[in-house]
Amino acid sequence: MYREWGIPELGVLWRSSAGGAPTVIPADGSADVILRDDELIIAGPSTRALTGRGSVHGDTVGLRFAPGAAGLALRTNPAPLRDQQLCASEVIPKPVAHRAAALLRRLRDADLMQPGPPEALTTFQDFVPLIRASADSGFARAAAPWTIEVRHLASSGAPKYAAAQHLGYSERQLQRRMLDHFGYGYTALRRVLRAERSQQFLRSHLNPIAAARLAGYSDQSHLTREFRVLVGTTPAQFAAAASAAAGRAAYTSMELPSGSSTVE
């Protein structure tokens, strides 16, 4: 089972049950800090589909930073980490790694579904102050305001020159700032967000031709080529899997805390 909880201005805190077959993870432009089998791992900003695995012993937990937050949150240059999974001690400052591991161990060892003693961390809301405290001490800082604006521009399909002009940068300045904060450039961000839009359309039962047109692809072939790289499957296969998952969910009812979601 997979569960996640959104954190405004930062990203998503998530938890996944142990075991399970390797899973293809679509690109989302985000970077994660992950505790798996008690090893702290940095998954760099993703701009292509990757294959992930669960832990052997105990749940896997992580904090996924919104696109543009990785540089400040991890206190390192995210560009060399792009589309890689590396041992945290090799890529981020040791004090930052220590605080991240301590936070994620508390999440892993807490039971967020069951009531517990007053001193126990039993709800997602209990973790928010800890995450904010981590930000104050140098880990998990929220994204800079301009990164939120550039995400909106990329999502709207604005070309790079128009985005740079809107933000008051030259195209070269925008590229440099994108690499420092996102770990990749503006064009890559547009591709990731366009692929996410197409996934939403396919989940809404639109056919690939309509999804391609509405998401901004030149044609269905263009969508299929991009989908293979960014999502790791074809639009038709994705739509069939999404339809099957929706059918299973129709038979499942589960009360969730505010801001959370669950996938089994």
UniProtKB/TrEMBL annotation:
Q: Which UniProt keywords apply?
A: DNA-binding, Transcription, Transcription regulation
The species this protein was found in? Leucobacter luti
User: Sorted alphabetically, which SUPFAM superfamilies does this protein's record hold?
Assistant: Homeodomain-like
- Is Transcription regulation among the key words of this record? yes
Any idea where the HTH araC/xylS-type domain is?
164-241
Under Pfam families, the record lists: HTH_18 (PF12833)
Disulfide bond: present as a keyword of the record?
Answer: no
Please give the name of this protein.
Helix-turn-helix protein
Single Gene Ontology MF annotation: DNA-binding transcription factor activity
